[in-house]
Amino acid sequence: MITRSVAIGCAAVATVSAAGILNYAVRGRSAQIFGPSVYRGCSSRRSIALTFDDGPSPKSFELIEYLARWNIRATFFQCGINILRHPPIARQIHEAGHEIGNHTYSHLLLRPKLGYKPRINSRRTVARQFSLAQEIIEREVGVTPRLLRAPYGMRWFGMRDVQRELGLLGVMWTVIGHDWEWPARPIADLVLKKASPGGIICLHDGRDIQPNPDVSEMLKAMKVIVPALVDQGYSFETVSELLRP
Least buried of 65, 121, 129, 136, by fewest C-beta within 10 Å? Predict the structure, then answer.
């Protein structure tokens, strides 16, 4: 006979296990539960991908000018609201040869917090965030993204459906630079420590949907990261290029 205390204990274990699975599905960089996703590319060649989230912003100009000096093409995951604020910047990033990805319309945290109202964080909301951003990128930039990145790297229910409908592949990262909170030197140190062939580096040329964000530490870090990776024999590719064998 199973006692009441044993039953309660089993239920608690099951709850913890389910919570662990959900947490992995939401945040695990290799997780495929909420939709197809990658966190690195082909490692058979010494290539790496720079990616930048949350733009465009006025400072994106300085970033692409620096990348042009090194003949680097990167992947930019852009927010719809920020594109509407800065359509010429978004177009110039694309015209400079960089890849454009979908980073939702308003950088909404897709995973609800405790006590959330289901109607706010519904599958419909997830679909609208990506669909609206896709429409804005197509209209304002003139390109149809094939990649998406969830804000904060946190996936949620409904993403698999929207990825299938819009033809989008999810992209996580091999290393994220913490450039929204750290000064340039620790950012660069972390990125260089974790860099590896086929790696995807996540940095930011915006701050969610702030109109004029300070990304100066990221820009300083880039002036350390890029020369160091070049000295180590790395070449740079967009994420789509990096995924090719």
Answer: 65
pLDDT above 70: percentage of residues in the chain: 89
Provide the terminal-to-terminal Cα distance of the chain, rounded to the nearest Å.
57
Establish how many alpha carbons lie within 13 A of residue 179's alpha carbon, considering only the half-sphere containing its beta carbon: 31
Cβ pair 234, 72 in contact under 8 A: no
Question: What whole-number distance in Å separates Cα of residue 50 and Cα of residue 28?
Answer: 20
Helices 159-166, 123-136: crossing angle, 10 deg rounding: 30
Q: Which residue carries 């070049």 as its tokens?
A: 230
Inter-residue contact 150 to 124 (CB < 8 Å):
no
Return all residues near 21 (Cβ < 8 A) that are at least 6 apart.
none
* Rounded Cα–Cα distance for residues 18 and 64 (Å): 44
Region of residue 178 (left: phi > 0; alpha: psi -120 to 50; beta: else): left
**What is the average pLDDT across 28-50?**
97
Per-residue pLDDT at 121? 58
The structure tokens 């620096």 sit at 66
Looking at residues 208-230, what average pLDDT do you find?
Answer: 97
* Whole-number pLDDT of residue 3: 53
Q: How many CB atoms lie within 10 A of CB 167?
A: 10
Listing DSSP states for 95-159 in one string gives: HTT-EEEE--SS----SPPTT--TTTT-HHHHHHHHHHHHHHIIIII-----EE--GGG---TTH
pLDDT value at 215 more than 80:
yes
- What letter represents residue 181's amino acid? E
* pTM for this entry: 0.91
